[in-house]
Specification:
binds uracil; about 15% strand; 8 helices; alpha/beta
């Protein structure tokens, strides 16, 4: 099976998930979107309102910021990267995901990583950075301390680079953070070949 087939098969399982209560409140599962053959994978927190309606990650206002930087700074169309979240169902009223929801949902992100085996993982904000750092045995401090640097781990018989950045939504509330977000994308660009 190739990666596309494997991800499609995994999506069928995700679309039946009842591992935590969030499935009862959602409109649509939001498993992930884009190209499983991509070398680069973006991981956010959890779907919001627009994502819940469309069943796709990062299609609302925060998604516009992310999509813009993927296009304008990385010069890549977003359909050519893989984008997902730690949690695949929208928490009611966009509240933060609970520890037990993240735990229950983790199996899906783990399986996605094991299929895609990306060379570069970009974590967007606190939740995904903490999750990925724990998964790869790195010490998480805080998103502000850890962002904007390249962390190298050995996995899947190769060097994998992790670059944490801010959550794009945070740049909408704190306009002055957009510069950090843009600079982190320039760092990502510098390691893309
Ligand atoms: N915020 C996220 O973390 N993920 C989305 O898909 C949308 C907004």
């Amino acid at each position: 099976m190739d990666k596309i087939e494997e991800i499609n098969k995994l999506n069928e399982e995700i679309l039946k998930c009842t591992r935590c209560p969030l499935y009862q409140f959602k409109k649509n599962y939001v498993p992930g979107d884009g190209d499983p053959n991509s070398k680069i994978m973006f991981i956010g927190e959890a779907p919001g309102r627009d994502e819940d309606i469309q069943g796709k990650p990062f299609v609302g206002k925060a998604g516009q910021v992310l999509t813009e930087n993927i296009r304008n700074i990385l010069n890549i169309d977003r359909k050519n990267v893989f984008i997902t979240n730690v949690v695949k169902c929208r928490p009611p009223n966009n509240r933060e995901p609970k520890e037990e929801e993240i735990k229950a949902c983790s199996i899906w992100l783990e399986k996605q990583l094991e299929i895609i085996k990306p060379d570069i993982i970009v974590t967007l904000g606190h939740y995904s950075t903490k999750w990925i750092f724990e998964y790869f045995g790195l010490k998480f401090n805080s998103i502000m301390k850890d962002r904007g640097k390249i962390y190298k781990v050995n996995r899947w018989g190769k060097e994998v680079k992790i670059i944490p950045t801010l959550h794009p939504a945070s740049t909408l509330y704190h306009k002055e953070w957009r510069e950090f977000f843009d600079n982190d994308f320039k760092l990502i660009k510098s390691i893309l070949n």
